[in-house]
Amino acid sequence: MSVRTRFAPSPTGYLHIGGVRTALFNWLLARRHGGQFILRIDDTDQARHVEAAVKLILDGFRWMGMDWDEGPEVGGRFGPYFQSQRGKLYHDAARSLEAAGVVYRDYSTEEERKAEKERADAAKVAYRFREKPLPDDVRSRYEAENRPYALRFRVPLGRTVVVYDMIKGPVEQRTEEMGDFVIVRPDGMPLYNFASVVDDAQMKISHVVRAEEHLANTYSQILIFEALGYDLPRFAHVPYVAEPGSKKKLSKRFGAVGLDHFIEKGYLPEAMMNYLARLGWSLDGEQEIFTREELIASFSLERVNSSPASHDPDKLFWLQGEWMKGEPLEEKVEAVIPYLQGAGLIGETVHFGEKRKIAAVVEALGDRLKTWSDILTLGRYFFTEQLVHDPDAVKKRLRKEGVPNLLRGLDHLLATTDPYDVHHLEKAVHAFAEEHKIKMGDVVNPLRVATTGQGVGPGLYDCLEILGRDSCRRRIAETIAMLEST
RNA sequence: GGCCCCAUCGUCUAGCCAGGUCUAGGACACGUGCCUUUCACGCACGCAACGCGGGUUCAAAUCCCGCUGGGGUCACCA
């Protein structure tokens, strides 16, 4: 059997990482079995300005490396892939259902339904709509006056519908628990449960993998599949993603949960994919790092957890660091350039010498650079002559007896060290400490803060060389002036 | 409220279906130490969980029931 999965996002202008994970599971399943992954835009409700929202989704998928075999921009045999353009399919399906007598015209008014709902609430029972047969003369009068009606599915009583869920196991529901549900609104708009079935059937989706909030919809959908005469796809409902340290559903309210946030921060798609895959799925309880190929080779729905997982930013960050270690220097340099440009630290055109300097900074930063945007916090002082002293570092390393004189001595050392490079600087500073009987820490730390303004950073000699002799001496002078004026 | 789903360290999870090898394993985070001029990396060690109560059994994290807690759904939203 060929595996065809799909992800059907609404173009809301926001790509939640929980949704991305669901999409990833779909994509992984399709790739695992050499099948197809279909992207379908669920824009029945969003009338306009979907273009930017769709672009956000497509860009996010491309960034993650989740390619779709059918959908926007690539087309496919079962298009169109925008629900707003599939009206005829829904209309035809609704007509055939009506012809088969499984749906009926509901002329009820909102007031009537509201009253019934209130009665049900008062009696503390679930509200379920049931057909109230219309006398023939009333029906023909309504039809004659073209009275608007919704199309409702007549749920057959006395049945138990069972979903053989690949994650949850068999889940069943008696049809008595279900009300007759609307499939098409009076204005002709198909509702989700109906459109979704028509689309999945027509697109020959074999596995419907979606968020668990849809589990209860599945009974209705199964009824529609059957009425339309289609084979059932396999279903898998994946648990929601919870907030860190809680079982509360992760929402936009929590903050940084949009994929774009992580893209802007400068996360690696490999790290994000690795993280999302392990959120609610595991291979063996041992392996944490997975390449995309390993994921494709080992993913299975059976090993998706049936209980919710909490988003864990710390783990994502760790994974990011692990993936960053494998990134070649050249790629790091290229990746970091746009951030430097965005902050106005370098110009639009990057010259050879500048690139060499960036490479030196990136290399000196080493593992400290966890995300691309870190270049702005950890590497800023290499790209601006403006010296910003970190107050804590100044207090800890510079507010001591004799520091200005120490710095004057170090300034002289820098002025006379030749050639001015890591190797000779290190030798010179060591000799200086020995000669003045000062502990290395008491030399190196003040010098670091005096030249970089920061208490932490790459190796000191790397910093000194990259900054250059003139810049270092100027910074030391500025620091001495600052110390002596306050 | 009815119906349905879920429940192992703070977090991600292994183990559960096929009960004993589980004094519950791995990872993140956290703590300590080593390395070290700072930080990061690395290495070593440590802290830390079967929600509660019954039952079945020689034996239960694993099977059954109840409770508690969390979640979903009951739309002419998706």
Shape: elongated
Number of helices: 20
Taking pLDDT < 50 over at least 5 consecutive residues as the criterion, the unreliable ranges are none
Write down the Rg.
32 Å
Spatial order of the strands forming the largest sheet: 3-4-7
Structural class: mainly alpha
Share of residues in helices? 40-55%
Which percent band covers the strand fraction?
A: 5-15%
Summarize model confidence as the mean pLDDT.
Answer: 92
The major sheet is characterized as:
3 strands, antiparallel
Identify the quaternary structure here. single chain
Instruction: Give the tally of β-strands.
Output: 11
What's the N-to-C terminus distance? Answer: 78 Å
Q: What report would you give on this structure?
A:
This protein is mainly alpha-helical and about 475 residues long. The chain has 20 helices and eleven strands. It has helices at about 15-30, 50-65, 85-100, 110-120, 135-145, 190-200, 215-230, 260-265, 270-280, 290-300, 315-325, 330-340, 350-365, 375-380, 390-395, 405-415, 420-435, 440-450, 460-465, 470-485; strands at about 5, 35-40, 105, 150-155, 160-165, 170-175, 180-185, 205-210, 235-240, 240, 310. The strands form five sheets. The protein has a three-stranded antiparallel β-sheet with strand order 3-4-7. Helix 1 (about 15-30) links the parallel strand 1 and strand 2 (about 35-40). The longest helix has 17 residues, at about 470-485. It is elongated and about 110 Å long. The mean pLDDT is about 90.
